[in-house]
Model the fold of this input.
Amino acid sequence: MPRYRYPVISESEVTPKVVFENRRHFLRQGFAIGAAAALAPGMLLPKDAYAWADVLKPVLQTDLPSQELAGGEAFTDFRDATTYNNFYEFGTGKRDPEVFAHNLPVDPWSITLEGELDKTGAIPLEDILKRYSLEERIYRLRCVEAWSMVIPWVGFPLADLLNYHGLTSKSNYVEFESLYDPDNLRGQRRSIIDWPYREALRVDEAMHPLTLLAVGMYGEKMPNQNGAPIRLVVPWKYGFKSIKSITKIRVLEEQPTTSWQARNPEEYGFYGNVNPEVDHPRWSQARERRIGESGRRETLMFNGYSEEVAHLYEGMDLHQYY
Ligand code: MTE
Done:
């Protein structure tokens, strides 16, 4: 018997509600090191004492999730999820991230918060992690290339971070930037896209409880090839919106242009919502291949999360705003 049961997830039912129940009760655990450091600001502690990996470790020391999901969907095999990736900073081949992502310099890591926020500045990742409860959530990731996976992510809602930093009255959009480091990220030596990788959400999308900043998957810290140490996961949107290795979060009044829009506005819109009725100019989006399965399955509107997110787009022509 597994220690805990996974919630029933059928094709028609949407995952998040049920997995919200904090199975792994990743509650704030006191984080003694952080508290001690706060009491002694002038004291020099070894660098490791502040490293984000040390903060994550106790949280991630839990049972590995069971492969079986009662009622239907199983997790994608961990190996598939870590060897078949899109991370153009390491090349455009699906295997490139696995082969080259050891070059991603992940420690130390900080995120710079800018723009329409009450509190801005560069925050070490370990300080960010100490503030929030981490949860495990099972989300589908659907790539624009018509494949999909089901992954148990570990993270916290982006809304928690934005609330902590305080959105101003001019906060309409949230823009994200990935690490720019062409010395280590070989893909950035070629202008495949306009580096650094930039993505953005409308602020109501960013504040939606499904939108996750993920720092782990399958009970482990985020593998480099999947966007260590911290990435976005927006489960109702195509995978390109789920930006990896985030170094900057900028809140804006005006809608920014994303890297994919800049590269090819005909093929990639600002919204990137999974929509079986709006085809990519070069291929259909009506069906998808679940990695690890043979055959194809029907793609669901908003990747199966309609109940939660359809209201965000009420009255919008989704053929125009793709
Ligand atoms: N983030 C960065 N920085 N660079 C990328 O090339 N690729 C995106 C997204 N995030 C990408 C990125 C695309 S197209 C997809 S489908 C997902 O990451 C893939 O995530 P995975 O490799 O963890 O499955």
